[in-house]
Write a structure and sequence with these properties.
Strand order of the largest sheet: 3-4-7-6-5
Mean pLDDT: 79
Distance between the termini: 58 Å
Helix content: 40-55%
Number of strands: 22
CATH topology of the largest domain: Hypothetical protein af1432
Number of helices: 29
Largest sheet: 5 strands, mixed
CATH architecture of the largest domain: Orthogonal Bundle
Structural class: alpha+beta
Low-confidence stretches: 8-18, 123-130, 361-368, 577-582
Number of domains: 5
């Protein structure tokens, strides 16, 4: 969010294009971009001049000219070795949004690629949103779409956020906390997901300082004042490892790793450790020439200190989702202190620190596309697919947040391919990761050849095979145990689609019945009349109107009257006669999602005589015909819907029993066993009354039909402890 600290003075007079001496902050950019040739560096100065003129009169909250910020963003990217187009776009990244400069001018001056990059970074401040949270979510959604076309958009965005975090002090305390939280929750994880650990570490550090300044200060001070004994121990371990590596003639670079305040703070919180426990872990990085040397160095490290066998991870053979590769091991150091060692090549070290910015390739599919960039492109492609299905920007952002904290699990497909999934992923998450259609039709899975439910959590190294059936469809309960954003989005989309189809079908039947009372049908309504009605009420298609009728937001009789406007006929009276006349019933299976619901006051089950009440926003609410509340509903006969059970009914239905038992130990268990013996599920039990001799309980159970319920009642009545059973 690059322009959150811009101040535009109403009295500011636009300045001409700077023609004099180039200021020092531009010279610093030129020095950072020394890898570019003279002509390319001249383009950077040209971009600065254009940007300075466009932003004339605008200052930051710190009082500096606003142009110093985009130039500093370009310098951050130059330090990563990015190409000249990215640096120019960084200098001009706020011009389309905040100045008079046009897209056509950018194309004319610097070409279409720069103009597209600038447009990709531009925020959506011209649209109106309900609140700041929704605006931020929609802005992120647009940025993602731009990223899918060119990954350099996110590099500019991350550098923009990084420089803003470096200068966060000019903001108000409330703004600092909001921006810092957004940085820690969204931008730092994105940098990590793209393998850019240097960006991630600095964003986390500034975010921690902005969110909890006192805690950051205390931890930073304690890191700087480490005891002498710890420093001596660190030196001893480093010298021992270096000596062993040199004896094996391994060319290497050995670096001790210093923990950041944020990593210490999060480890103290998540692992409930003290500062001393966290700091007692020593960390080293060994950088060698090639992959073979990595494994040789691992052997040397294990000969120097005993390893913890459960803590070894091989991210060279199986890289992380962001392209990170390294060997990780934990050793028993002197006095039992854990020593964490990472072993990697120079190439892996570069990718680990810079991620997608390492060895930049300009376009997707080009030669030299590194592993981090390939994985980033694959991740973003999946997110773009996900955002098309998400119901709102906020829902999409929540799904992305899930994917941004992946403690990965690596599992194998039946063909031997490796899939990376977030920690706690289930077989169903795996199914959706393979393909959305496989997830939508999944019924079970085989893990290492053993048949398991879809909710089974996976662990690394398992081989997973998904069993599908064409008749299967997603269930709302699936949302309770999937963890990946892709699975959650696909399930929600499919459930909405099924609900919509059910609503359209029932709405069609209701409107047909209303039209039949007027001696016509939907097919006989003139197309022009139907189109006019849809247009007048802003329905894009007939299906949308039918769904609204089913959901109770439009009354079928009124829609029918509006569609059949004939002179000389008293349609209103005929419509009223239709309300009171006997009608064909709408038959339901119990599987109509989102349109049919069952009243909690009488809990109807298949086999009961029922009626439907048309309720705005809820569709048709089904009641037993003997429900006490039906008397009140007779006052609105136009909302009655004749309802009946279809020949084939699916699913379990809620029912309630009032059971009197002897109040003695084990009575409740006997009743529960009797209900289970009748193959009914118990979903709730509560005491209604209780004294020394008798207890009255209410059992909420699930049955398939009225005859099933009768069977449950018979089983319970046969129990010695049961004094009476009654359906509520």
């Amino acid at each position: 969010m690059s322009s959150f600290d811009r101040v535009t003075s109403p009295k500011a007079v636009p300045l001409p294009v700077p023609t004099g001496e180039v200021p020092e902050y531009v010279r610093e950019l030129e020095r950072a971009a020394a890898y570019l040739d003279d002509d390319q560096r001249a383009l950077l100065v040209k971009a600065w001049r254009l940007g300075a003129e466009a932003h004339a009169g605008q200052t930051r909250k710190s009082g500096e000219p606003y142009i110093t910020h985009p130039v500093a963003v370009a310098q951050v990217l130059a330090e990563q070795g990015l190409d000249v187009e990215t640096l120019i776009a960084a200098i001009l990244h706020d011009t389309l949004e905040d100045t008079e400069l046009s897209h056509a001018q950018l194309v004319e001056e610097f070409g279409p690629t720069v103009a597209e990059l600038v447009e990709g970074v531009t925020k959506l401040d011209k649209l109106q949103f309900r609140d700041r949270q929704e605006a931020a979510a929609e802005s992120f959604r647009k940025m993602l779409l731009a990223m899918s076309r060119d990954l350099r958009v996110i590099l500019i965005k991350l550098a923009d956020r990084l420089h803003n975090m470096r200068t966060l002090g000019a903001q108000s305390p409330e703004s600092r906390k909001r921006i810092a939280r957004e940085t820690i929750e969204i931008y730092a994880p994105i940098a990590q997901r793209l393998g850019m650990n240097l960006f991630k570490a600095e964003l986390q550090d500034h975010g921690f300082r902005g969110l909890h300044p006192w805690r950051h200060a205390v931890i930073s001070r304690r890191i700087l004042t480490q005891p002498v004994m710890r420093r001596e121990l660190l030196t001893q371990i480093e010298a021992n490892l270096a000596q062993k590596l040199a004896k094996d003639k391994l060319m290497h670079r050995l670096v001790s790793r210093v923990k950041s305040p944020w990593s210490i703070y999060t480890k103290m919180r998540t692992e409930h450790k003290s500062f001393k426990q966290v700091m007692d872990v020593f960390g080293f990085r060994v950088v060698v020439r090639n992959v073979g040397d990595c494994y040789r160095a691992l052997g040397v490290a294990h000969s120097a200190y005993k390893p913890l066998d459960s803590r070894f991870r091989d991210f060279i053979a199986i890289p992380k989702a962001n392209g990170y590769q390294s060997l990780h091991t934990v050793l028993f150091g002197p006095y039992g202190s854990p020593v964490e060692v990472q072993i990697r090549t120079e190439e892996m070290d570069l990718v680990a620190e810079r991620g997608i910015a390492a060895h930049w390739s300009y376009k997707f599919g080009g030669d030299g596309f590194n592993g981090a960039q390939s994985r980033a492109h694959h991740w973003i492609t999946n997110l773009v697919e996900s955002q098309r299905s998400a119901g709102s920007s906020l829902e999409f952002l929540e799904n992305v947040k899930v994917d941004l904290f992946p403690d990965e699990v690596y599992v194998f497909t039946p063909k031997g391919d490796i899939l990376s999934l977030p920690r706690n992923s289930t077989s169903l998450d795996f199914a959706y990761a393979v393909h959305t259609d496989i997830g939508n039709t999944a019924v079970a899975s085989r893990v290492d050849g053993k048949l398991v439910p879809l909710r089974t959590k996976l662990v690394s190294g398992q081989r997973v095979d998904v069993i599908t059936a064409r008749s299967s469809a997603p269930k709302p309960q699936w949302l309770e145990f999937v963890v990946t954003g892709k699975a959650r989005t696909a399930i929600r989309q499919q459930l909405k689609q099924l609900e919509h189809e059910d609503a359209v079908q029932i709405g069609h039947r209701m409107l047909d019945r209303a039209l039949e009372a007027l001696d016509t049908s939907l097919e006989r309504v003139p197309a022009a009349r139907l189109e006019a009605y849809l247009s007048e009420h802003r329905y894009p298609r007939l299906e949308a109107l039918l769904a609204e009728i089913a959901l109770g937001n439009r009354m079928p009789q009124q829609v029918a009257l509006a569609l059949v406007r004939e002179r000389g006929q008293n349609l209103q009276r005929r419509a009223e006669n239709y309300v009171h006349a006997p009608q064909d019933r709408i038959l339901i299976t119990g599987n109509e999602k989102g349109v049919i619901s069952f009243a909690v006051c009488c809990l109807p089950v298949p086999g009961d005589e029922i009626m439907g009440y048309h309720t705005a926003g809820r569709g048709i609410v089904v009641h037993r015909i003997d429900c006490p509340n039906v008397v009140d509903y007779r006052k609105s006969p136009d909302r009655w819907v004749p309802i009946g059970w279809d020949r084939v009914v699916h699913g379990d239905f809620h029912a309630a029993l009032k059971i009197e038992v002897d109040n003695r130990p084990g009575a409740l268990a006997q009743v529960a066993a009797g209900i289970a013996d009748a193959k009914a599920n118990i979903d709730r039990v509560e005491y209604i009354e209780r004294d020394a001799n008798v207890a009255v309980l209410r059992f909420g159970i699930e049955v398939t039909s009225r005859s099933h319920l009768a069977d449950v009642i018979r089983k319970v009545r046969k129990l010695n402890v049961a004094l009476g059973v009654q359906r509520i």
